[in-house]
Amino acid sequence: MVMKNIYLVGFMGTGKTTVGKLLAKKLRKEFAELDELIEKKEQRKITDIFSQSGETYFRQLENDLLKKISTQSNLVVSCGGGLMCNKNNIQILKNSGIVFNLEASSATIYKRTKDFAHRPLLNVQDPLMDIENLLQQRKPYYAQAHYAIDTEKKTPEEIVDAIIIILKEIKQVK
Question: Burial code of 37-76, b = ≥16 C-beta within 10 A, e = fewer?
């Protein structure tokens, strides 16, 4: 049975990569992380792409890669936090797969990400306030995912199990 792609979206620090790898392993699917693929293609880190070429350039790379990935199937894909803020991307995701938004509070996101200097959005005076503002801005976009999973007090394994239960209910997994 050919399965649509499974897309994990949401803010940084909600567990997209960790959960995505575990989910792919459990479902025997290939895992793809868009940011990682962009870094590989560009041969530079996301922070360098942002600082050297700007966010617009990065978002175009992200969109081009998503279009390419969406032609494949049976993938578990971890998407960058801002990917859903583009209406075209939302359409591509929804047309080619099942979209799960992983959610967490701003305090939890801050706690999970505060020690990572490679996060361009956190290299600011008040990262917690920026996280809260961005979460608020992105909320209507994230809300367009097919399903929302609260990752607040769950282990990655529990999140994977919750996704698999939904996939079974919609007959994407046996």
Answer: bbbeebeeebeebeeeeeeeebbebbeebbeebbeeebbb
Per the domain annotation, does 16 fall within a domain?
yes
**Model pLDDT for residues 36-71, shown as the tens digit of each residue:** 999 999 999 988 998 899 989 999 999 999 999 999
Token pair, residue 78, equals 């971890």
Q: What pTM value is reported for the model?
A: 0.92
Q: Are the C-beta atoms of 103 and 142 separated by less than 8 Å?
A: yes
Answer yes or no: is 174 within a domain.
no
Q: Please, what sign has the CA dihedral across residues 70, 67, 84, 152?
A: positive
The Cα 142–Cα 80 span in angstroms is 12
> CATH no. for residue 105?
3.40.50.300
- Counting the structural domains of the chain, the total is 1
* Alpha-carbon span 85 to 166, nearest angstrom: 24
